[in-house]
Design goal:
Structural class: alpha+beta
Radius of gyration: 29 Å
CATH topology of the largest domain: Immunoglobulin-like
CATH class of the largest domain: Mainly Beta
Number of strands: 17
Order of helices and strands: HHHEHEEEEEHHHEEEHEEEEHEEEEHH
């Protein structure tokens, strides 16, 4: 197996190491794909209005439809391995959910109900980071462990049409495994308002002890060809024997968790997990026993790290020239001074001019702008009050600039109040991986050393 960028072959050794390398490579690819998708959603251009958003949703919808068709063609072949069939079933489940949510958002947008309220700007949105997902398992009965096989488990994280899946973990044996851990998965959500609801779903599939009982592995290629010769390909395509859907393992929704802004934290926390009742769809006692043996034994809780980072903490909200009059108290004297202001990260930073900011010089002063800041427009002057300190800015004959600064500062303080404790969190932004740096030691040439000696 060749690794990209390396002029050597990778020696996998035995089959176990090869399978582990395949899973780690697949997980790395999925993390990179999620980062690209998150960056694309964050930097999408909405200048074209609803028409451009509709075109983007239709493009994403066509991609999901093509992916579903590709998976359906993939599962037609009965010679794929067990892991490949499980991965195909997971991809099919994720794509179907994305397709349904994209259709729902597209219909809402066409009815004029899919856009964010006009009062919510891009600076009021944030990015979410979900990582270190761990689902503890309960200890099942010994008789049940002997009868049942191993489980294939994965999770889905959903906010609207942003649906991301974790890696598929297999095999999971409840008798010998304490929990299901997705430590290597890192999920990002973009353009999320403060009233978001993050839905985490746990899906599981019981793989019997005898792998040949799976629908994909029951019929060899020779038997399939003989059946097609006798019955005809047209009859098989119509799905008399159950169609293509019977060839895909059906993952069961085992548990769900609903997280909001109150659940954001700087540490890994434990949250309540609602366990689904798989027996509700059956009526007879025998079918109930089958469903109960298929259910993944869960402890009823989960652990994860959820953090939020508003965009106004990383990107400049507004900037422009201002006339500063610094007053410690209302009765003190002041002197007007032209400065350049930049609003970002819950503070208003001031420089002498725009070039000083561009050169990376230290700001003259940083004025906090938070939920405790009072911003008023008094006789054409903009006043910012923090406790007993008053900052006053004059805008002579420029009512438009005064209105813009007043609106942006008021919105900035309101965002700090809306995001609560998440306003000061730090989130690893997608694409900001720390790359190994190579240190170069600068040396002088022999010619320069020779002339110095002379």
């Amino acid at each position: 197996m060749l690794l990209r960028g390396l002029k050597r072959k990778y020696d996998c050794g035995d089959e176990e190491n090869e399978s582990e390398y395949y899973r780690s490579s697949l997980r790395h690819f999925q993390n990179a794909s999620r980062r690209r998708e998150s960056l694309r959603i964050k930097t999408r251009n909405e200048v074209g209005g609803e028409l451009s958003v509709c075109l983007e949703l239709e493009k994403r919808l066509s991609i999901e439809n093509s992916l579903i068709q590709g998976v359906e063609k993939f599962v037609k072949e009965p010679t794929h391995g067990l892991v490949a069939c499980l991965e195909a079933a997971k991809t099919l489940k994720t794509s179907e959910l994305r397709r349904d949510m994209l259709k729902y958002e597209l219909n809402k947008l066409k009815r004029g109900q899919g856009r964010l309220p006009p009062c919510i700007s891009s600076s009021s949105l944030a990015g979410l980071s979900l990582s270190h997902i761990r689902v503890p398992l309960s200890l099942p009965e010994r008789a049940r462990v002997k009868k049942s096989g191993s489980y294939a488990v994965f999770c889905l994280a959903r906010i609207g049409s942003q649906i991301y899946d974790t890696a598929l973990l297999y095999p999971i044996e409840p008798g010998s495994t304490a929990d299901v851990s997705f430590d290597d998965d890192l999920i990002f959500f973009s353009r999320v308002p403060h009233y978001f609801e993050l839905l985490i779903e746990v899906y599981s599939y019981l793989v019997p002890s005898n792998h040949t009982s799976l629908p994909q592995l029951e019929t060899p290629r020779k038997i399939a060809r003989s059946i097609s010769r006798v019955m005809g390909k047209s009859i098989l395509k119509r799905g008399i024997f159950g169609g293509n859907e019977s060839n895909v393992p059906k993952f069961d929704l085992t548990a769900t968790a609903n997280l909001t802004l109150e659940d954001c934290s700087n540490e890994i926390c434990t949250y309540e997990l609602y366990v689904e009742d798989l027996n509700r769809t059956t009526s007879t006692e025998s079918l109930n026993n089958i469903s109960s043996s298929r259910a993944l034994p869960l402890f009823g809780s989960m652990c994860c790290h959820l953090a939020a980072r508003p965009y106004c903490c990383e990107e400049e909200v507004y900037s422009g020239e201002m006339t500063l009059m610094h007053q410690k108290r209302a009765s003190s004297s002041s002197t007007a001074k032209k400065v350049w202001g930049s609003l970002m990260n819950w503070k208003l930073s001031l420089w002498n001019d725009k070039n000083s900011k561009g050169l990376g010089k230290q700001s003259l002063v940083d004025i906090p702008v938070s939920k405790d800041t009072t911003i008023t427009d008094k006789k054409g002057n903009l006043q910012i009050r923090n406790e007993q300190v008053l900052w006053e800015f004059k805008f002579e004959h420029d009512s438009v600039m005064l209105s813009q600064w007043f609106q942006q500062l008021s919105q900035h303080g309101s965002n700090h109040r809306k995001w609560k404790h998440a306003a000061d969190m730090k989130v690893v932004s997608p694409g900001s991986e720390e790359l190994p740096t190579r240190s170069f030691k600068r040396t002088r040439s022999k010619l320069v050393l020779f002339y110095n000696d002379v």
